[in-house]
Amino acid sequence: MSGADLSGGAHLLDANLKGANLEGANLEGANLSGANLEGANLYGAYLSKADLTEAELSGANLIGARLSWANLSRAYLSGARLSWADLSGAYLSGARLSWAFLSKANLSGANLEGANLSRAFLPKANLSGAYLSKANLTWATLSGANLKGADLTWAFLTRAELSGVNLSGAFLTRVKLSGAHLKGADLEGAKLCGADLYGANLTDANLTRANLTRANLTRANLEAAKLSGAHLKGADLEEANLYGADLKGANLVGPLLLAVKLSGANLSGADLSGANLEVANLFGANLSGANLEGANLCGADLSGANPEGANLCGADLSGANLEGADLTWANLEGATMPEGWDQ
Asked: What is the pTM of this model?
């Protein structure tokens, strides 16, 4: 059936095409709902607008196939080869895609709500504007993929490989990203409210103006990350590594920053009012113009830091290391200073 023309809405409902050779076949608009295409060769096949609801496509060869606007809801695609396939606008809600190969596939605008993509291989895939709410992408590989503006609300991306991925403007509310690898990822303007990023690697990531309100960043690695203008109100950054990070103008009101590493970080103009920075490492940090009113800095290391013009009104600095920190122009009204401190 290689190269066959079955376009025009051919009815192949529940057909048994297991292992069939349909390379380059034209199946546009065909009804293949419930069909068995396990291990079938559909290389370069034309399946635009086809109905493949609950079809069995495990292990099928769909490399370069055209599946734009096809209905693949609840289809079985485990281990299927879909590299370079066009799935733009396709409906894949509840589809099983674990271990599927989707390298450089086009999934822009596709609906993958609740789909299982665990351990799927999607490097450099185009998922811009895709709907992935509640999708399972645990251990999936998405390095270099384009997820700009995608909706990943409540999605599972635990231990996923996301280095260099474009998630700018993406919706990641309540997403599970614990242990995920996001080195160099672009998350500018992303919505990460309540996201779980425990132990995630965000080295060199761009989180400029990202919304991380109430996000869990415990033990996350944010070394040299760009967080200028980011919203981190109520976030948990306990034991997080923010060495050399840019937090200029960031909102850090009320987050948990216990034992956080902020040495060499740029916190100029940041709002840290009421923040818990107990035993935090702020060695050499730029705190010029920062608002630290009522902050807890007990036992914090501020040696060599630049707090010029910072507001430390009512802050608790008992036991803090202020060696080399010039507090001449800082507001220390009502602040609790280290024992024996004398500037």
From this structure: 0.92
